[in-house]
Amino acid sequence: MEPERVKVYGLFPRTRRRYLIETTLGAFFAVFLLAAWWLGWPRLRQRLVHLEVRPNLQPLLRMTVAVLDQTPSILLAAVLWKGMEVYFVLRAFARREAQKQVTKLSPSTTTGYSSMPSHFYAPTREDKFAFGVWCLQNRGRDPFGDQTRPELPALECIKGLAQRSCYGFEFHDNDIIPFSASASQRDQIIRDVKKAIGDWGIKATMATTNTFYHPVFKDGAFTSTDPAVRLYTTQKVIRAIDVAAELGTQVFVFWGGREGVEVDASKDPVEATKWFRESINFLCNYVLSQGYDIKFSIEPKPNEPRGDLYLPTVGSVLAFIATLDHPEMVGINPETAHIKMAGLNPYHEFAQALDSGKLLDVHLNGQKPLRFDQDLSYGSDDLKEAFFTAKLLVDHEYPGTIGFDAHPYRSEADPWDFVDRNMRTYKIMKEKVRLFNDNKEIQDLLKEIHGANTNLRGLTAKYSKEAAQKLKDMEFDPVQLASRKLPYERLDQLVTELLLGVL
Ligand code: GLT
Ligand code: MN
C-alpha cells in the first residue's frame, strides 16, 4: 500500500481520507443541529425567557437566546462556507484528472506539435523508471575533494524514489547491508527493506555486488591473480544473489570495476578472461540449482578505476557471453557514459545489445566523450544522443526498466532535483519520439530515403544457387547509384527543430 499523501484539502494540510471523514461528519452534525433546533428550540426558548436569574446574569441570558435564535442563519453560513470549500477541492481534483487525460491525447494533427505544460511529464509507475541507490547516496566526493552532501540512508533513498512514482531501485549488497554487518543485522535489514517495498509500492529491480571498494579487490575480483580473492568474490556474489532472490530482484548485474590492469606484464588477458568465465559459469549453476528467477547482466566499461578494464564494450561482452555454459541466462546492460568514455556511439551500442536479444537493463546518463567517468544526468550534455537512445527503446518496445546511473552535481545539496530531472527528460524525449514518428515531413523524407530500388529488396535474404547466379549476372551502374540525392541536412535539421520545440 502506498502511503496516502498529505495535501492541502480545504484550508489545512490533511489526507484525503481525513478530509472526507471530517466533511461527512460535519454535514451530519449540521443536519442534526438544525433538526434539534427546529423541534426543541421554541419550548426551550419559552423556559429560558421566563427563567429567574440574578439581574447581573440577565444580559448573558438575553445574548444566549439571541444567538440561539440565529442558529439557522449561522448554520446556513457554515454550510455555504463548506460548500465553497468543497467546490474548490472538487475543482482541483477535476483538474488533476483532466491533466491525466490530456497526457493521453495525441498532438494537434495539423502542426504535429502539442505544447505541453510541465506537469504532463510527471513520472508514473508505468514508465518503469529506476535509480541506483548508490546514485542517491553519492556524496559528491571526487579524487580531488571531499564529500559535499550528508549521508542518505538506503531506506530514505527508496522512500524518496517511491514518493516520486519511481518504479524501482537498483542496489549493491553494501548499499543496503554494511560490509561488516553480522548475520542477524543482515536479516533485520532485509526485513526492513522488504517492508519498505511492500509499504511504498516500489520494486527492487536490479541487484549487484560491490566487488570494487574494499582493498581486497585492489588487483581484481574475479580476475585477481590470487585464487583466494577469486573465491572470496564468488562467495560475496552468492550472498548478494541470495539477497536479490529474497527481495524479488530478477536482474543481477556484474560490473567489473576492478577487473583490469595498469601493468600488462602482470596478467595474461586470456588467462584473466578464463577466471572470469569460470566464476560466471559457477554462479549461473548456483542460480539454477537454487531455482531462482534471476538473469545475469554484464555491464561493460573501457577504463576507470583501472587503467584498462576487461570487457570494455557491448561487442566484447556479447562475444564473452557466447563462450559461457549458460549464455541464455546472461545479458548485458550498457551505460551511456561508459560507451562515450570509449568515444563510441551509445545509440549504436545499445542497438547492438538489443539486436542480439541481450538488452536486459539500461544505464542511462550523460558524459562528455573521452573523459573521466562523469555520470552526468541523462540528456544534460547531448540532447540528440539522448533522443536517439529513447527512440531506440521506444521503437523496439524494450520491455525492461529505464535505469538511470548517474549522480547529482557535486554542488547539489540533495539528490531530489537530480532524480526528477532524469525522469522528466526521458518522458519529454518519449514525447519527442512520438512527434518524430508522427511528423509528416520527417516521415516523407524517410520514405524517400528508404524508397530506392524497392524491387531489389530481399534478393540475398535466403541463399540459393539461383539467387547467387542472378546476383552474379546483374548489372549495376555505380555512377548512377552514386548520383542519388540524400536529404540528410534537411532531415537532421528537422530533428534539431523538433528538439528545439519549433517543429
Ligand atoms: C558504479 C559504476 C556503475 C555500475 C554500478 C554497478 S557501480 O557506480 O560506475 O556504472 O553500474 O556496480
Ligand atoms: Mn552503470
Can you describe this structure?
The chain is α/β, with parallel strands linked by helices and 503 residues long. 51% of the residues lie in helices and 9% in strands. The protein has 18 helices and twelve strands. The chain has an eight-stranded parallel β-sheet with strand order 10-8-6-5-4-3-12-11. Strands 1-2 form a two-stranded antiparallel sheet. Helix 1 crosses helix 2 and helix 8 runs parallel beside helix 9 (269-290). The two termini are 43 Å apart. 30% of the residues are buried. The structure holds 5-thio-alpha-D-glucopyranose and manganese (II) ion (MN). Manganese (II) ion (MN) binds at residues 299, 335, 363, 405.
**What kind of sheet is the major sheet?**
8 strands, parallel
Provide the helix percentage: 40-55%
**Treating each run of at least 4 consecutive H or I residues as one helix, how many helices?**
18
Strand order, largest beta sheet: 10-8-6-5-4-3-12-11
Instruction: Give the termini separation.
Output: 43 Å
Task: Report the bound ligands by name, code or SMILES.
Answer: 5-thio-alpha-D-glucopyranose, manganese (II) ion
Helices, strands, pairings?
Layout: E1 6-9, E2 12-15, H1 16-49, H2 58-69, H3 71-104, E3 129-132, H4 133-137, H5 154-163, E4 168-172, H6 173-176, H7 183-200, E5 203-208, H8 227-246, E6 251-255, E7 260-261, H9 269-290, E8 295-299, E9 308-309, H10 314-321, E10 330-332, H11 336-341, H12 346-355, E11 362-364, H13 383-395, E12 402-404, H14 416-438, H15 440-449, H16 465-473, H17 478-482, H18 488-500
Parallel strand pairs: 3-4, 3-12, 4-5, 5-6, 6-8, 8-10, 11-12
Antiparallel strand pairs: 1-2, 7-9
Helix pairs in contact: 1-2, 1-3, 5-7, 8-9, 12-13, 13-14
The protein binds 5-thio-alpha-D-glucopyranose (GLT) and manganese (II) ion (MN).
Manganese (II) ion binds next to loops.
